[in-house]
Design goal:
It contains 29 helices and 10 strands. The protein is an alpha/beta fold. The protein has 3 domains: 424 residues, Amino acid/polyamine transporter I, CATH 1.20.1740; 130 residues, HUPs (Rossmann fold, 3-Layer(aba) Sandwich), CATH 3.40.50; 133 residues, HUPs (Rossmann fold). The protein starts with a helix and ends in a 9-residue tail after the last strand.
């Protein structure tokens, strides 16, 4: 027989041999889940829960706890039939949906909760052991159990699973022993308890870890033959079986044992069993197996985190042995568990674990809800669940967290946010895509459809510039000024018109605009494949005119020679026709924008063309943190007094900065420009008939760069 087995191994390729070593639904998911769920809480705290809450209260707590895990189990079943889940269970699911940063920020607390669970179960094992050998030292018992568990998990997961089959039989016999109790029924079955030891939510927090074992199988996702099939079937099967067991045991506790005994004797189930030894063996077996499940699963979560460089010392933790065991992660996890055993107590650990698991479950439900809501074709799981299931799962996790401990809930959420920010700054790169870009795109599209139902109002104006760039390699426009106009809430749509070297031109365009993108300004850029520049620009304006995110001002640059004046005139005509503002820059060849402080805004009383100019002036002044000067020209002293009143009234109505200065220059406009106060930029209104001679001469007169701005009629500086 041995020879036959050896021969069969010779025909197995390395890949098939590795596949043969992987687990199926029963051994890889159902057994670890059931044994982790039926752990220390069932034996040592379920009776206490019934004693405080009564039978109906206990059932309510069980059902409420199970509601969270049922919703989470259904959500997990759905998403695992849609993606190729990798190592790390819940971490892999979240990472492949919301990115490595979100996966890591939730996965790290999840790893901690798994490790603390092992400590919790070892403490429970110690309590059961001391019932048999009360003279033993508790700390030594815990350390001995920890060493044995660490040794088993270090050898291999296969060895651990084989031991769990034996443990499952022992737990089954211990439950039968309690079901066959020789005790007479209690004088009265208490349906609703008085919660004498703790309130409802504290009792719930103590019990909740009893149902959190649903991730034990998912944590083994990298070692399963078919995760898509095994995780849904094994997880939901374990949830259903353990729900029946918990409700049944709660009824027997309430029926046979008085509330006083249940609250005062944590070994009440042992004392009431037909064969006490079997129940004690069950406690030892259950706590041992639950601890073993956590000690096998937690290092695999850590190893999965390390593979994607989401934890420190990732090179160390990511290492696997030849038989696929994350032994470095196992050793570290073992040390962490030992510290937790020596530092913690059962109830304190239970409450802490509750929070970490709720965060993980809530995020997993949220992932499924988001993908269901996006209605994208890539989300087509073979196991479908209604959208309200994942929503109820996510909301109930958050709700229960804050009911149990609001302060720790806030601390936990802040911790996740800090982890997310830290991981974002690490610049992680995954081998797979995620839904984040699509998610925000769907939100933007829905917001755009909603915005289209409401007319655009001047009160919501912000600078959204359309910038045609003739040649990105030699463009003379100023990114510095464009940034000052658009930051922080504006946007830029830049394009160039070319009929050759499209890819090369697009690369130059992206490189040109990169400094603006790096400053959190919304930048879109493209190359229009067209021979005629004006025609291509007109097509862009026409295409964008009815979009929800359409530009509202055309930004042009005036060149020294007059070759492109006809182009500017034509583009100005198209912008006016399609209700766009126009901004023309003539940059001073030497002064440029000076020290970027003072802004001169030239106004004329009675002119309708000043709203956009004032809005742009305010944008620049705000970003430069300088002074705004309002300037107008009067021919006579009488007009000068009237002009002063005009500027004061305008300043008050437009809510201009308090440091705004007013200047009324007396004389002819072309003569007084040289006497204007010095500024780093001068802004003028744009005449309906463009005067290129004036636009070229005035920068020399005012000794600064100049902007010439024409309203579209859609702006107002007075709202």
């Amino acid at each position: 027989m041995k020879k036959l087995i050896d021969k069969s191994k010779q025909f197995l390729s390395p890949g098939k041999e590795a596949e043969a070593r992987k687990f199926g639904t029963f051994g890889g998911v159902f057994v670890p889940d059931v044994l982790t769920i039926l752990g220390v809480i069932m034996y040592l705290r379920l009776g206490w829960v019934v004693g405080n809450a009564g039978f109906v209260g206990a059932v309510l707590i069980i059902l409420l706890a199970k509601t969270v895990t049922i919703c989470t189990g259904l959500s997990m079943a759905s998403i695992t039939t849609n993606i190729r889940i990798g190592a790390g269970g819940a971490y892999s699911i979240i990472s492949k949906s919301l990115g490595l940063e979100a996966g890591g920020s939730v996965g790290i607390p999840f790893y901690i909760s798994q490790s603390l669970s092992a400590a919790l179960y070892i403490i429970g094992f110690t309590e059961g052991w001391l019932r048999i050998f009360p003279e033993h030292i508790p700390a030594l018992v815990s350390i001995a159990a920890w060493m044995l568990l660490l040794g088993i998990s270090y050898v291999s997961a296969h060895f651990a699973i084989k031991i769990q089959y034996i443990i499952m039989v022992i737990i089954g016999l211990s439950i039968v022993s309690f079901v066959m109790t020789p005790e007479a029924p209690a004088p009265k079955l208490v349906y609703v308890g008085k919660f004498q030891d703790a309130d409802f939510w504290h009792v719930f927090a103590i019990f909740f870890p009893a149902v959190t074992g649903i991730m034990a199988g998912a944590n083994m996702s990298g070692d399963l033959k078919d995760p898509r099939r095994a995780i849904p079937l094994g997880t939901l099967g374990a949830i259903g079986v353990t729900l029946v067991i918990y409700i049944g045991l709660a009824y027997l506790c309430a029926y046979y044992i008085s509330p006083e005994v249940l609250r005062g004797n944590q070994m009440a189930m042992v004392d009431s069993a037909r064969w006490e030894g079997l129940v004690i063996m069950g406690i030892l077996a259950a706590t041992f197996s639950s601890a073993l499940g956590s000690m096998v699963g937690a290092p695999r979560v850590l190893q999965a985190l390390a593979e994607q460089k989401t934890v420190p010392f990732d090179n160390f933790f990511a290492v696997k042995s030849e038989n696929n065991e994350p032994r470095n992660a196992i050793i570290f996890t073992g040390g962490f568990i030992l510290v937790s055993i020596l530092a913690g107590n059962l109830d304190a650990l239970a409450s802490l674990i509750t929070m970490f698991f709720l965060i993980t479950y809530g995020t997993l439900n949220l992932v499924v809800f988001i993908q269901q809501s996006m209605k994208i074709i890539s989300f087509r799981p073979t196991f479908k669940v209604p959208r309200f299931v994942s929503l109820v799962g996510a909301l109930s996790c958050v709700f229960i967290m804050f009911l149990i401990n609001p302060i720790f809930s806030v601390v936990a959420l802040i911790t996740i946010i800090i982890l997310y920010i830290w991981l974002t700054r690490k610049g992680l790169r995954s081998e797979w895509g995620d839904i984040r870009g699509g998610m925000f795109l769907v939100l933007a599209e829905r917001a755009a459809r909603l915005a289209a139902k409401f007319p655009r109002h001047q009160i919501s104006w912000k600078p959204d510039l359309l910038i045609p760039i003739p040649d990105p390699q030699v463009w003379a426009g100023s990114l510095l000024l464009i940034r000052s106009i658009t930051y922080p809430s504006g946007s830029i749509f830049a394009f160039t018109v070319q009929d050759r070297n499209i890819d090369e031109t697009e690369a130059y365009l992206r490189e040109l605009l990169q400094p603006l993108s790096q400053q959190s300004i919304a930048v879109n850029a493209t190359v229009i494949e067209e021979h005629e520049y004006i025609l291509g620009t007109r097509l862009v304006i026409q295409t964008l005119k009815n979009g929800a995110l359409r530009p509202n001002a055309l930004f042009l640059t005036l060149e020294e020679n007059a070759e492109h004046d006809a182009v500017i005139e034509a583009l100005n005509h198209h912008a006016v026709r399609y209700n766009m503002g126009v901004i023309i820059l003539n940059q001073h060849p030497r002064a440029a924008f000076g020290i970027q402080k003072d802004v001169n805004l030239w106004l004329r009383d009675g002119s309708p063309n000043w709203h956009l100019a004032m809005l742009i002036a305010l944008q620049i002044q705000s970003n430069w943190e300088g002074r705004l000067n309002l300037i107008t020209v009067a021919s006579t002293k009488a007009e000068k007094r009237q002009a002063n009143r005009f500027l004061e009234r305008l300043s008050d109505q437009a809510r201009l900065p308090s440091m705004t200065e007013f200047y009324v220059l007396e004389g002819e406009f072309k003569q007084v420009t040289e006497t204007a106060p010095r500024a780093d930029i001068n802004i003028f209104g744009l005449a309906s008939q463009l005067s290129f001679d004036f636009m070229r001469s005035v920068p020399q007169q005012v000794r600064s760069s100049c902007l010439f701005i024409g309203d579209s009629g859609q702006e107002s500086a007075l709202v």
